[in-house]
Amino acid sequence: MLLAIATMSRILPTLWLVALLAAGLPDFPAALADEQPKVEQECLSYDSAYENAPLFAVKTSPNEQRAWLYKKTEACPKDKPCGSRQKAYLVSGDAVFAGPPNRGFRCAYYGRPNGKIVAGFIPDDNLKPMTEDPSMSIDFVIGTWNYENDSIGIKAAAAGQVSGDGQATYQTAETVNEGSFSAQAPLAAGQKELVFKEGNDESSCVVKLHRRGPYLIASDNNYCGGLNVRFDGIYTKAKTK
After folding, report:
1. Model pTM?
2. How many angstroms separate the CA atoms of 166 and 197, rounded?
3. pLDDT per residue over 165-203, tens digit each?
4. Which CATH superfamily is domain 48-129 in?
């Protein structure tokens, strides 16, 4: 009897594994794509979960032109110095990615036109949910898109096509690793994803872009440059001169 129980204890895990394989293992990158930010005591860039966070429009308080960002989830006392308040602020209409409620605040991510991601706590009262339109258009995508030191330039090409040229870097202690791509991609009205593929083999660089409000979220297949060079991130459109 004991031998039978011991044998069964070894067989059951095996049967469970066979059943799991038969059902198909989960696509772990796809599962992580929907990862959401968690409640944290600090609001610092960069957490890739904010690429999937809800978008909010900034609204300022009555008689206020600015919505300030804070280092902590603490309101500043009136008419007194406040070390928690950052120099960075937002104005009505700005679009931010924001995490879950945290003591009346939310950790928010905002992209500047130069590609700098600014992060800080913002009072929940200064935010209202945005209704997103994920569809792209020629007018929306054409321009220079920046994320930190990386950039993607998009121009009109042949009918129904756009061209993309990207440059990215990764700084190490000894050197700067570089990456780039140059390719064309089809773009039709209402399209929700723009895919640039440089070549036709398995090791060709592929960069995918999708829209989140005024931003483009980029991801690549890790074949677009040197070690650790990636085009992943929240890209903001540069202002035209």
Report:
1. 0.83
2. 12
3. 999 999 988 899 999 999 999 999 889 999 999 999 999
4. SH3 Domains (2.30.30.40)
